[in-house]
Amino acid sequence: MKTSCDKYAVxxxxxxxxxxxxxxxxxxxxxxxxxxxxxxxxxxxxxHEANEVLGLLCRQCKPIKDxxxxxxxxxxxxxxxxxxxxxxxxxxxxx
Length: 95
Fold this sequence. Notes:
Elements: H1 6-13, H2 17-26, E1 43-47, E2 52-57, H3 61-70, H4 75-94
Antiparallel strand pairs: 1-2
């Protein structure tokens, strides 16, 4: 499973192509938060303090996750709020 983020992920995060492909396989090519398949590359979610890759996220979820985490919310509260946003956006999309 190749994506356009291969070279960037390998250069920036020290991932091997095999590690990136493993992440893509584990997540079935989907965002680690919203679980949607996207027509564009997924972004690497990296914990700089722990020096580890957390997963791959879509362009919509990564900035939201980064913002919420920067506020100091607990993981439970983060996912609770993200789920609420996701439900609201689906309702809005349906009309």
